[in-house]
UniProtKB/TrEMBL annotation, chain A:
Keyword field: Cell membrane, Electron transport, Heme, Iron, Membrane, Metal-binding, Transmembrane, Transmembrane helix, Transport
Family: Belongs to the cytochrome ubiquinol oxidase subunit 1 family.
Major subcellular location class: membrane
Organism ancestry: Bacteria, Bacillati, Actinomycetota, Actinomycetes, Pseudonocardiales
GO cellular component annotations of the record: cytochrome complex; plasma membrane
Transmembrane segments annotated in the record for this chain: 20-41, 53-71, 91-115, 127-150, 180-205, 217-237, 257-282, 294-314, 334-359
Keyword match Cell membrane: yes
Domain of life: Bacteria
Native organism: Lentzea tibetensis
Gene Ontology molecular functions: electron transfer activity; heme binding; metal ion binding; oxidoreductase activity, acting on diphenols and related substances as donors, oxygen as acceptor
Listed Pfam families: Cyt_bd_oxida_I
Protein name, as recorded: Cytochrome ubiquinol oxidase subunit I
Cellular localization per UniProt: Cell membrane
Topology of this chain in the membrane: Multi-pass membrane protein
Automatic annotation (TrEMBL), chain B:
Keywords: Cell membrane, Membrane, Transmembrane, Transmembrane helix
Family, similarity comment: Belongs to the cytochrome ubiquinol oxidase subunit 2 family.
Species lineage: Bacteria, Bacillati, Actinomycetota, Actinomycetes, Pseudonocardiales
Entry's transmembrane regions: 6-33, 45-65, 71-90, 97-119, 125-143, 150-171, 183-205
Full protein name: Cytochrome d ubiquinol oxidase subunit II
Signal sequence extent: none
Species of origin: Lentzea tibetensis
Length: 386, 208
């Protein structure tokens, strides 16, 4: 493989791993906002315990996800220096807004939320999780604006061989931005819903005794999934006319590109049907008493993650051979780096990311198995530790 | 406008080295000090410190697009080392893994930044792979032993090498267009003091 193939493979691997963390972060934080808001309003202990239990899983995932994000950010400059020098004036703007407005603030609000547990006024503490969630969504907003530009460049002017930003608003009204953002946001909500449902179902299968706790969690998870999936699928199909207009040859980019797309649609439809079938069964907890749906719920946990990777493969590979559609070819954007250097970084980052994902999974599984706390801990309950 | 963004980048980069420097220093000192206590002192600062790097690279990309690619891809292997070290260090600190991993991560990151200084300044690499870890270790020691005046000095010593080595490079013609910079500065300028205040309150709260 030459430098270009290695750089593309590295981007595909690191971005896919990064996105697994992103999905769960975005999805879970939304459900935690609901739980903590209920706790702050009602002061019912069950909501506080729910916020702590799911919050802990969220923090584990965030702490490891942030590490993948740092590598992602460097990767543009390391491997794709042609993108920065040609389109950096335009593409860099939403990316910088993401780091400054969203990520820089998000991690700071989250830090305050973690260390402020039990030490801050409860309304201030509630405001912090709301702010963390809003800045997390702002992250998705700016990243999708940047990605929308790569799919269909707008708001620029080419002068002296480089792009210049002339209309910032055009980046935000870009047809390849809004629908795709909606799709990603509801994909994250679906992931959060399916995850909370599956984990709660696991505790019912194991009969761990936390009935009230996981009954509420399961109901919340099912309802969120049922509400999110129609929008998810709507925003998914809503993109086909846009693709038809702006990237009519998308499916020709690779002969097998229909396969991941097909699987993604299949998973989306299954989740829609399953969640809508489960909603009426929430009545008198039939879904729990019937037991067999619980097993399906556990099996379903990985599905949204797979679907999201399939979706990204379709969107990104379908843009080839362009990096910035119609303007900059991928082969012209890759850095002048030896294949040996690229192989080294590919091996280093891929193996570390794989290890991070496995660790994340193992730690979450452990937190899930040990269940919600029965006695409050002396230190901040959310500091990640083994 | 261009001076402003150069100043902003310098502040962020210096902030990163002054803050994360004592994290790496703590990591380097771990085999020689009481570990649990050293880690406990660092914990409230840790996440806040590392995000300064992310902000620096974000500003580098947006405001200096033609510099970013050159700078990073020109030192590809050095950054592989720095990032590999960062992944190891951040993950092992947050998960409280075996202290040897924390140490190895800190060593990789600090040697990596040493190599980067050597790369920028054209000075021999074997000096900097020793000097940079020593500076960080000294800074970590000043932080751990709470020697305020020494801490300020070591912070400065950690923060200066990269900006000084970089100052010999001209950035003329490498920056984004003034219109883009003007638009971004509406956002960037209020954020920095806000983040500083919020990060300060994390530390204040956790020491309560």
């Amino acid at each position: 493989m030459d430098t270009l193939d290695l750089a593309r493979l590295q981007f595909a691997v690191t971005t896919s791993f990064h996105f697994l963390f992103v999905l769960l972060t975005l999805g879970l934080v939304t459900l935690i906002v609901v739980m903590q808001t209920r706790f702050t309003l009602t002061r019912a202990p069950v909501h506080e315990r729910m916020t702590k239990f799911w919050g802990r899983i969220y923090v584990i995932n965030y702490a490891l996800g942030i590490v993948t994000g740092v590598v992602m950010e460097f990767q543009f400059g390391l491997n794709w220096s042609g993108l920065a020098s040609y389109a950096g004036d335009v593409f860099g703007a939403p990316l910088a807004l993401e780091t400054l407005v969203a990520f820089f603030l998000e991690s700071t609000f989250l830090g305050l939320w973690i260390f402020g547990w039990g030490r801050l006024n409860r309304w201030v503490h509630l405001a912090l999780i709301w702010l963390t969630a809003l800045t997390a969504y702002a992250s998705a907003f700016w990243i999708m604006a940047a990605n929308g530009f790569l799919q269909h460049p707008v708001g620029y002017e080419e002068r002296d061989g480089v792009l210049r930003l002339v209309d910032f608003g055009a980046l935000l009204t870009n047809p390849t931005f809004g629908t795709a953002l909606t799709h990603v946001v509801f994909a994250a909500l679906t992931t959060g819903g399916v995850f909370v449902t599956g984990v709660s179902a696991y505790h019912f299968i194991k009969c761990t005794g936390e009935v009230e706790f996981f009954r509420r969690s399961l109901r919340l998870g099912v309802v969120v999934t049922a509400v999110a999936t129609p929008f998810l699928i709507g925003a998914g199909f809503g993109q086909f006319p846009i693709i038809g207009t702006y990237q009519p040859h998308k499916e020709d980019a690779a002969p097998w590109l229909g396969v991941p797309l097909g699987f993604m649609i299949l998973i989306g439809m299954s989740l829609l049907l399953a969640s809508w079938a489960a909603v009426p069964l929430l009545f008198r907890d039939w879904v729990i008493r019937m037991r067999f749906p619980l097993y399906l719920m556990v099996i379903g946990i990985p599905l949204p993650f797979c679907a999201a990777i399939f979706g990204w493969l379709f969107r990104e590979i379908g843009r080839q051979p362009w990096l910035v559609y119609g303007l900059l070819r991928t082969e012209d954007a890759v850095s002048h780096v030896s294949a040996a250097s690229m192989t080294t970084s590919l091996v280093v980052f891929s193996s570390m990311f794989l290890l991070l994902a496995v660790t994340d999974w193992a730690l979450i599984a452990r937190a899930v198995r040990s269940g919600p706390e029965t006695t409050p801990r002396p230190i901040a309950p959310l500091v990640v530790s083994l | 406008m261009e001076t402003l963004w150069l100043a902003l980048l310098t502040v962020l980069v210096m902030g990163y080295f002054a803050l994360a420097g004592f994290d790496y220093g703590t990591g380097l000192l771990l085999p020689f000090v009481r570990r649990a206590e050293a880690m406990r002192r660092m914990t409230p600062f840790f996440l806040g410190n590392e995000v300064w790097l992310v902000a620096s690279v974000g500003v580098l990309f947006a405001a200096f697009p033609r510099l970013e690619g050159e700078l990073l891809s020109g030192a590809h292997q050095v950054f592989t080392l720095v990032l590999g070290g960062l992944v190891l260090f951040m993950a092992s600190v947050q998960l409280r893994l075996w202290h040897g991993l924390v140490f190895a991560g800190a060593l990789m990151v600090s040697c990596g930044w040493g190599l980067f200084v050597a790369h920028l300044s054209g000075t021999p690499w074997f000096i900097w792979v020793v000097v940079m870890p020593m500076l960080f270790a000294l800074h970590g020691w000043a932080f751990q032993t709470r020697r305020r005046p020494a801490f300020l000095l070591t912070a400065l010593a950690c923060a200066l090498p990269v900006p000084i080595a970089f100052s010999s490079h001209s950035v003329a013609g490498l920056m984004a267009h003034p219109d883009t910079l003007a638009m971004l500065s509406w956002v960037a300028i209020p954020i920095l003091p806000l983040v500083v205040i919020l990060q300060w309150s994390i530390v204040a709260i956790s020491s309560r």
